[in-house]
Amino acid sequence: MTKTFIFLAPGFEETEAIVPTDILRRAGLEVETVSITPQKEVTGSHGITIMADSLFEDTDFSTGEMLILPGGMPGAKNLNSHAGLKKLILDYNNKGKYIAAICAAPMILGEMGLLKGEKAISYPGYEEHLHGAQVTDERVIVSGKFITAKGPGVAAEFALKIVEILKGDSIAKKVASAFII
Length: 181
Known about the structure:
By secondary structure, this protein is α/β, with parallel strands linked by helices. It has 6 helices and 11 strands.
């Protein structure tokens, strides 16, 4: 089974973590939510506390196919300051694995220099962090092994694009139909 990891940091945008987790699991993908804090309980930017499946330091990332970074503030800044996560992002990038980021989280990839020559999008106002990227106004963009999306309003579309990439168009359409999208 294809495995993905969704990272939770204090102040994450709840919609951008929960909706992809739900849709990917409906599509039959294995999704592990990972806290980058010492606790499994992580509180999002709107006061909703989520129980992560695992802690970063206890997780085996070798079996994964994709890393997913929710945005939100200060969630994206907290992800960006986690050295272990940045090392993992570089490892996945070097292995040609997918990395998805939504809202403010594409700034992490941009500031790491990974989006040079790629098309990308972020939450309005964060484009300046997408160093070297060709910034477009699309809602969800796939460029190389990167998937970026604009914000919480496109969380379902973002998740369905991930399903399409990892499980195929027919599964994505089936999940979208059941989800009434």
